[in-house]
Write a sequence for this structure.
């Protein structure tokens, strides 16, 4: 790994295109990190069923519940942006223009946020309930 | 206007297509899973009984099986793409690929074993 490749993550070309690229990677890696933990914790229902309650207890803690709200944003954003990439690459290649791309990136952020807000509201309310606020 | 070129049909091309097709399938699967478990049911209501109740339906097991297989293969291939952006030597590329295949196999087999074995009451 080179330092140059790392700094390029921040300085390369910039603009909404790079923003969506970086967000797609970060959300993807974040989801994978959770997915791996989640496969392991769920497998305890068969291998060590007495440990399952302890695993779930971690998810019920307030820091994890807040993390869960960001996880849901990641899943929504990665899905919307991934659909944008897949649809352009597979079905709309002829429509690939810089202007369309930039517009679609903005729409991706708007749609993701709108889908996330109701979920964030419900999950945020659960956090407040747990805190007794 | 995009330039259309002919690309070689190799493993990387299959991986490229895999990311797009599996990604499109994962949108309803993963969003449905997150909506049901995290938003509607909530982690406070999930325990061994809930899992065994859910897995009593073959349909939900099939759903979870599909999600497990697609999400792990999609996610670990995504990790591979990110890591390979920072690796250029052929020998190291092969090492990354082999390591991640083992990582993927261990996790997917662990998940399938639990799905097939089901909940064992302690």
């Amino acid at each position: 790994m080179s330092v140059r490749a790392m700094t390029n993550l921040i300085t390369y070309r910039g603009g909404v295109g790079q923003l969506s690229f970086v967000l797609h990677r970060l959300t993807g890696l974040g989801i994978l990190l959770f997915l791996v933990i989640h496969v392991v914790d769920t497998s305890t229902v068969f291998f060590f069923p007495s440990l399952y309650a302890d695993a779930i207890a971690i998810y019920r803690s307030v820091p994890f519940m807040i993390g869960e709200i960001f996880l849901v944003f990641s899943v929504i954003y990665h899905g919307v942006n991934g659909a944008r990439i897949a649809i352009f690459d597979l079905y709309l290649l002829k429509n690939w223009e810089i202007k369309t791309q930039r517009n679609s990136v903005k729409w991706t952020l708007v749609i993701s946020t709108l889908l996330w807000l109701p979920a964030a509201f419900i999950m945020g309310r659960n956090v407040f309930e747990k805190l007794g606020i | 206007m995009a330039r259309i070129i002919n690309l070689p049909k190799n493993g990387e091309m299959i991986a490229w297509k895999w990311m797009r097709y599996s990604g499109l399938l994962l949108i309803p699967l993963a969003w449905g899973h997150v909506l049901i478990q995290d938003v509607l049911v909530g982690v406070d209501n999930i325990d061994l009984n809930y899992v065994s109740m859910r897995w009593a339906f073959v349909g939900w097991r099939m759903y979870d099986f599909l999600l497990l297989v697609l999400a792990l293969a999609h996610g670990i291939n995504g990790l591979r793409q990110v890591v390979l952006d920072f690796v250029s030597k052929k020998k190291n590329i092969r090492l990354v690929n082999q390591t991640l295949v083992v990582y993927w196999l261990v996790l997917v087999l662990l998940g399938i074993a639990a799905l097939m074995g089901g909940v064992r009451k302690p």
Summary: DSSP finds five helices and no strands in chain A. Chain A touches chain B through 49 residues (CB under 8 Å).
